[in-house]
Write the structure tokens for this entry.
Amino acid sequence: MRMAVQHEELVVDVVPAAGDRNLLTQETVAMTVLAQDPTIVDDGGPIRAPIPVPAGRLERGPCGERFRVVSPAGAPLPVVLHAGDPWRYVDRWSPSAQPDATALPDDPDFRAQNVYAVAAHTLALFEQQLGRPVPWHSGLPQLDLVPQAAAGKANAFYSRERNCVLFGWLPVLPSRPSLYTALSYDVIAHEVSHAILDGLRPRFTQPSLPDQLAFHEALADLVALLSVFTVPGVALRLLAPKNGRILLPPDAEGRARTLMASPLARLGEQVGAAGGGGGPDDVPALRWSGVLDIGPAWRTDPQFDEPHRRAEVLVAAFLQTLVTMWAGRLEPLRIDPDGVDADRVGEEGVKSAEHLLGMLLRALDYLPPVDLTFPDVLDAVLTADRRLAPDDAHGYRTALEQTFARFGITPPPHRIVDSDGVAAPTEEAAADARPAGTEAAVAPDPDAGTETRLRYEHLNLAALRTSPDEVFSFVWNNAALLSIDVRYPTRVERVLSSTRVGPDGLVVTEILADYTQVLRTTAGALPPGIAAPAGAAADEQVELWGGGVLVFDQFGRYRLHQRQPLLDIERQTDRLAYLARSGIRGVQGVLGATDGPGEAERFARLHEVG
């Protein structure tokens, strides 16, 4: 089944001339890809577009410094993207070099370029917003991409064990054409986002509350959907203008509904059709989260314990914010009987989506390292955006907060705190707003001290930028003021630096340090207020986790603290109950332990089609 998008022909060939493709003299190079699934076509066939890819020496495969395109056996493919000089890229599939786009899906060399280019472009989006290189979980510099993995499966998935993303395919049948998931921009961006998040937040696949694994899926969906707007000309083409105009209702709500119904809001059209997934009016799509009913009923619906289903809540909140802001930005435009100027509609959509994607990606460093919840996501997005964009001229933060509230998601009791009270409330203000009794009442540490100001004595500020031991020294010396009880095993897991640039040019350099805490006890000896799951024996072993993120400025001065308290009564009670109900335990049967289930089982939960 093919979806024909009717619009006037728009061909934008911005691929540089051959003499301009010297990879030594430019930061990026434009590579031709399919901007949507092959089922989204115009008169010339599948929609293709050039996307910027970080420039670097290209070996056959293609292989660059961050990705290798390989066979199922792990050997680089014999695909060459140059004419003898690995520093000079040749695009054989631009509209000028290959006018017939219908031939691209069946070309294995093009599939290799397509998967490489989209993967590299997606990684670059993350690194641009985070202000630093992103590591792979394996510790290796390159991630493998297998564009033609298992036959007979319309599926793709990231494998931590193999340090690769595998793209399935379906052979041609009388009822449908062949299907290669390596041709889907959505699917590639989605699965590479899983790999990126696994490198950034490896504990997000460990046993926890259902929000945590759902966030893995939601982030991948949102990157796939919002990054389409970064592809030159694609937003305009998918809106299907006629004679340069787009028909939109006169009211903001009507405009938002029309924009949500465009192909931009659907994920994986061809894969969805193969898997039987459909959206409203039975239009094939892998998921169509944007039209999810608003309200908090999902919290008590057992269907939303499944990661894909639960992820739709977060995706819907972001997409409904997007179309609300997009429709609002169109308010000043004149609506004539023949519609609105298509270029302006597309331009405002690109601006809205790029800013919203940046808000989401910049927030990743402010998320707790363990036990993530949707309220934590909202808190991190709002705080990270205030750090880089103090002025919210278009009301993005307000719109996002209001949309989340309609889904019953509000900032958590333990909000990110700011020593200056600029990007987030101060510790004092947050404590005053927090309900009493949120943490288990245990006897305070008698040796924590009574300091009223932070101590920087005995610290090596140069080492603070890179050394977990130096950050732990800061935590140890300021445990009382930071509300971190160091009587529980505490570990600083990573320290890194970033330099980010906000939408208005504001540059912020930060040092970020993640720490975790753990308590292993028995169900009968849990801290006061934390309830054991129903039916748990008093001597059954359980494990509680907590942690947080400390943020310092470029001078080593403490600025922000995201704290996920180890003794949070509601979170720990809910976590243990959910894990017990789901039958999730560690390899030794410990409830709440982070050593189970295995990697294959964790990611398998995210890779079912539909």
In short: The mean pLDDT is 86.
